[in-house]
Amino acid sequence: MDVKQLKALVTVAETGSVTRAAELLHLVQPAVTRQIRALERDLGVPLFERTRQGMRLTDAGEILLERARRALTELERARAEIQPAPGQVTGIVTVGLLDSASDLLAEPLVSAIARDHPGIELRVLTAYSGHLQQWLDDGDLDLTLLYDLAGTPSLNVRPLVREKLWAVAPPAAGLRAADPVPFAEVAAQPLVMPASGHGLRALIDAAAARAGTAVAIAAQTNSMHVQKRLVRAGHGWTILPGVGIAEDVADGSLSAAPLCDPTLWRSIVLGTPRTGRRAPATDVVVTELTRQVESALSRGQWPSAELTGNDA
User: Fold this and answer.
1) pLDDT, tens digit, 9 for 90 and up, residues 99-118
2) pTM: predicted TM-score of the whole model, two decimal places
3) Closest CA to 262 of 165, 157, 131, 151
C-alpha cells in the first residue's frame, strides 16, 4: 500500500470513474486500474463495485477511504511544516465553525490568516456542534467552536462566550430587543424546532420541562437557515441565538426578542485535541480565532453575548 494507490482510491471514489480519476491524476487509465487492483490484492477484498453508473465503493472501500483521506491529509501537513520559508509559520489547519457563527467569523478569520500568515493553508468546515465534536474526535479538525461542553478525556476546552437565546418571529409579531418575551408566551406559539439531538433542541426541551409547558411543534429541521425561512413564511416562531439572526432583524425580515422567565443561555467554547503534537500553525489559528471572537463582541456584532474566556 503506497501513497499513489491511496490517491487513486480517493480520486476514483470522489469521481465515480476511473477515466475521470486518471485525468485528474495525470495518468493513463490502465495505471489507475492497476493501482486499485493492487490495493484489492493486498487487502484481499474488493474495494469497488463496477456498475453501469460507475465505480461504487464496497463496505470495505468505505472503511479504507476514510482512513486514506486522513493519511493523505497528514502527509500534506507534514510536508507543509517541514518545508517552511525562513521565519514563516506554515502548515494546513482545519477549523470548525458553528453554523450560527460562521457568517460572522469565517471571512475575518480567513482574511487575517491570509494577511499575517500566508504560509498557513486554512480549511474551514461548518456544522452543528455535535458533528464538529465528532470530527474533532476523529482527527478531521484541528480546532473547533462547540456549544455547552466541558473538557473530556480527549478534548481540551476553553470557554469563550456565553449568549442569550432569542424568540424569533415574523415581522408582524413586532418583537423587539428591548422587550424580553416570557418563555411560556413563546411556547404557546407553533414552533419551528431544531431536530432532536441538536444541542439547541435539548436546551429548549429542558426549559419547557422546567416550566411544565407543552410545546407545539410546527416543523423540525437540522438547518438554521431553514428555521428562519419557515418563520418568514409564517409557519411559526422559533428560538435561536442572537448571532444567528442579527442581520435578519436589521433588514426587517424577522423580529426577535431575548427570552425571559427563564432567560436561556448557552456557552461557546474552543475545543482542541488533548493528544498528539499541536503544530505551530494550529496555535496561530487558535489565537486568531479567539481574537476574532473578542473583536466581534467589542464591536457589538454579537447580540446579548458576553466573554467568559480564561487562560485554561
Assistant:
1) 888 989 999 999 999 999 99
2) 0.69
3) 165
